[in-house]
Sequence to fold (189 residues):
Amino acid sequence: MKKFLLILAVVCTAFTGAYAGNNESEFNVGEALALYLPNRVLDLLDCFSVSLGIGPVVEGRLMFTRACDVGGGIGYSCKATKEYGRQIGVGIEEFWYWSLIFVGEESYSMNEGSAWVRKYQEDRLGVPDFGTRTYDFFEGQRDYWAIGGALGLGIDGSVYIHPVEWADLALGFLFIDIRNDDLIFDDFR
Fold:
């Protein structure tokens, strides 16, 4: 009986004021239940980024958030990518950067690409500012809190994990969507 009451309390909490997603004031229980499994799968896939490219590139980077970054690189690369913010496809990347912990300089652009890879450019000097549009929590193209690295010499690749997405996945099991990226029925229209 105690277990049943505990489960009931958790479910009631999840279905009442705890939901933070999709810019709606009402929580649609049927919609949340129908899309529960697809949203958890998408949240799991959001937890990492991986890309593989080819082109005239030299790169080496280790990163523990954008502020704590060590490495350098220069190049132009055609990449197959699964990036932060559900960007999946191919794109043409052009960049040069150097970084030593909290100081650095970077010029990065995603010039061309498939429909699901956003085109953008970022130029910075010094510590990256997580308040810029590029690192926007909901609409940004890059994750300020990413952890991982990149390596390349003619062929380049990168792998990153996204701690905020891990939190979004964990809270998603309680119907809490902190990234505001869960699917709703209107997304299919």
Q: What stands out?
A: The radius of gyration is 19 Å. Helices lie at 2-15, 29-34, 36-45, 163-172. The first helix runs from residue 2 to 15.
